[in-house]
Specification:
Elements (H helix, E strand, L loop, with lengths): L4 E6 L4 H4 L4 H8 E2 L8 E6 L5 E5 L6 E2 L15 E7 L4 E5 L2 E5 L4 E4 L6 E5 L8 E7 L7 E3 L5 E5 L8 E7 L10 E7 L5 E8 L3 E8 L7 E7 L2 E7 L3 E5 L4 E6 L4 E8 L8 E3 L6
Parallel strand pairs: 1-3
Antiparallel strand pairs: 2-20, 3-4, 4-11, 5-10, 6-9, 6-11, 7-8, 7-10, 9-12, 13-14, 14-15, 15-22, 16-21, 16-23, 17-20, 17-22, 18-19, 18-21
InterPro entries: KduI, KduI/IolB_isomerase, KduI_N, RmlC-like_jellyroll, RmlC_Cupin_sf
GO molecular function, one term: 4-deoxy-L-threo-5-hexosulose-uronate ketol-isomerase activity
EC number: 5.3.1.17
Length: about 280
């Protein structure tokens, strides 16, 4: 069995620093653009809520979830929990001898204290693409798979405001018990391009957006920053943006798309957010 793991660290910055950033500095700080590398486990260790975002794409060989030096732990999940959503071909995850088969857009929650986690693809020619979010954990809940039909589904927005969308809440406290991690997948309807509108801010948690199902040549303009002083980052398929607690987040695409959101922080109240209608943004 072979394994390849890479990681990088992103330190937290505040509003005052970002006011002076140019495009390159903004992208280097908040854009995660090296996900879904075939045959690798890749992580970004963020100092916002100690949240980690990563991917595992097993091909000819399985991949092992290894601990990283910043964790100062014998096993990756000694003091962490892990959320996984598959956006590729069918795959399997084995956690401490327990097997979980994940089809596309199915999720798995792995609790604190799992010692051994291995990722497999059913077909290396169409590998699984496991998107990973991890947050510190204080309690060992139960591992749980969440299928597409087990998600809590919300239908929001309208064609008139170009934000008609379906929110699949895969990993919230009414679906699976977690310490602080929440994840889900939102898909915009054809003809709709605005996500999360009105824009909002989570002052008590961070959030990470992974944009998926964007065709070649298409992009999403992800808006961030303070409500009265916004910034934007152009994002392409299978790229993510770190959204700090002081920042708004919303986005508009050149076509419809989907995105995976992941959050961790002060509480598990999905509705804990401060909204900013379009006419209040600057």
């Amino acid at each position: 069995m072979t394994n390849k793991t890479e990681y990088e660290t992103r330190y937290a910055v505040g509003q005052k620093e970002v006011k002076g950033y140019d495009t390159t500095e903004l992208r280097d700080t908040f854009l995660v653009d090296k996900l879904m590398q075939p045959g690798k486990v890749y992580w970004v260790y963020s100092h916002y809520e100690r949240f980690m975002v990563g991917s595992a794409v097993p091909t000819d060989s399985p991949l092992v979830l290894e601990t990283l030096d910043p964790l100062k732990a014998e096993h990756f999940l000694d003091r962490r929990e892990l959320g996984i959503i598959n956006i590729g071909g069918n795959g399997t995850i084995v956690a401490d001898g327990e097997e979980f088969a994940l089809a596309r857009e199915e999720a798995l929650y792995l609790a604190k204290d799992n010692k051994s986690v291995t990722f497999y693809s059913d077909d290396p020619a169409q590998p699984a693409k496991f998107y990973l979010n991890s947050a510190p954990a204080h309690h060992a809940f139960k591992n749980k798979k969440v299928g597409r039909d087990e998600a809590k589904v919300l239908n929001l927005g309208s064609p008139e405001t170009c934000n008609e969308r379906t929110i699949n809440q895969l990993m919230i406290n009414s679906v699976v018990e977690t310490c602080q991690l929440q994840m889900g997948l939102t898909r915009l309807k054809p003809g709709s391009v605005w996500n999360t509108m009105p824009a909002h801010q989570h002052d008590r948690r961070n959030e990470v957006y992974l944009y998926i199902d964007l065709d070649d040549g298409q992009a999403v303009s992800h808006f961030m920053g303070e409500p009265h002083e916004t910034r934007h980052i152009f994002v392409h398929n299978e790229q993510a943006v770190l959204s700090p607690p002081w920042s708004i987040h919303c986005g508009v695409g050149t076509s419809n798309y989907a995105f995976i959101w992941g959050m961790a922080g002060e509480n598990l109240d999905y509705g804990d957010m401060d909204s900013y209608p379009p006419d209040t943004l600057r």
